[in-house]
Structure prediction request, 547 residues.
Amino acid sequence: MTAARTAGAPTSGRERARRFGLRPFRTWTLRSRVVLVVVAMLAVLGTVIGAVSVLALQNYLIERLDQQLTSALARGQHTADRINAGGPTIPEAQGVVTTPGQPTGTLGAVRSANGGLLFPPVVLSDRPSQSTDQPLGPRQVTINGLALLTVPADSQPRTVDLGASLGSYRIAAAQLDNGDSVIIGLPLSEVNATTQQLTLVIVLVTLAGLVFAFLIASFVVRLAMKPLARVASTAEQVAHMPLDRGEVAISVRVPEEDTDPHTEVGKVGSALNRMLGHVASALTARQASEQKVRQFVADASHELRTPLASIRGYAELTRRSPHELPKDITHSIGRIESEATRMTSLVEDLLLLARLDEGRELDHDPLDLSLLLIDALSDAHAAGPGHTWSIDLPEEPVEVSGDAPRLHQVVMNLLANARVHTPEGTKVVASLAVDAAAQEAVVTVSDDGPGIPEELQSTLFERFARGDSSRNRATGSTGLGLAIVQAVVEAHGGSVAVVSEPGSTVFTVRLPLAPAGSAELVASLESARPVAPNVPTVAEPQGADRE
Prediction:
């Protein structure tokens, strides 16, 4: 029932506007609304003035016609009384329309006291009848006599429609001395023609005025809105600035001529300039604070590498000592060494991120991504034999310009992410393709594992973001791997994205292709590079435990 009611319900005005591609009035620009309001007001004003003018002229012309009708009726009444001489009305009484002074087109008829017409109505014509060779003068007409029979003999003019042959007439009737009534009428054709001509002139002049007013209003409003447009342009420039990271200097300001506090636009421009000043100060303070944190992380990471190396060295030296140590001490030394190794990896990741944040330049050497993926997948297969590994490469080499160790780390981190966070037996596919339209190399790493929770996908590339709260390397991670992926890819001018659902997780890395001139150098590097170990297209699980 609900669907039926919905289908049968009338559509609202907003729905009809959307159907025809019209936007609601409140969504129009201020310039369009002002112009529309001005034109609409002029249209209403022109319509009112035109209607009043036409009605005033029509009333004036009808009053003049009524004066003529009153005079014609008096002449007709006098003529009829003279012809009848107090006796019954005779046919010669039709001469009421030919008496001197009667205008052309005068209608005349005599009505008996009993209510019927004594002879057919006649009209004083200035042209012969179309049906006969009747000369100039009165001619009989065929009309609906009922319209004349209902006119009271009170000498008051009335408008009567006499049909298509004659049109509208102003009719008046007066009683004769013998009790009959004479009926005189004058045509309204000239009045109607004059009124229609005036209406047409007013309509054309009003339309021309509206077009002219539209052009003038558009020009004036556009001229008046230019300061507001400049203020909006300044705000738009600031909106497109990357204010979320890095060193930010907001040098854009509203021009001085648009900050006059005596005008509405000037108040907006002045307030926007003050706001931009406050934002610039806040961003400068934020940048200084972030720079201190980055410097601290970089210095701490750099200083921690030496003691961590010492701890690992002494732990390994103690474990390899020829002296036999108790099992618990040997286990503790092994744990110290493994944790020192893990902490060293964490420190190296933090140091790399700090250097990337400082904007240090990476190497931009020509390299073939196909060989890089083969090497990375070989390492991943060795680290995770319990997974099914697959690679899909194009027939032609795909060259990019970048830092080979860093890009190798990107692919390794993506493969390690798929290995660590998916169960054994999961199929992981690394593929490479070329987007010719965008001139980009596209590296994808996909798996058919359980997927990434939707609430985690928005923060997946943030630092220390982990899907598992555990810090155990077997079940969780430090949360820096994907942050390094994003930082390195963006440093190369590329982008990284993820699309995940249960049964399908795809990481996509896009990198700009190398210039065409570097192809020969890449070929020479490939010929001098040792052949990568044989990686099967699909590596079957070998039953080993995960790392």
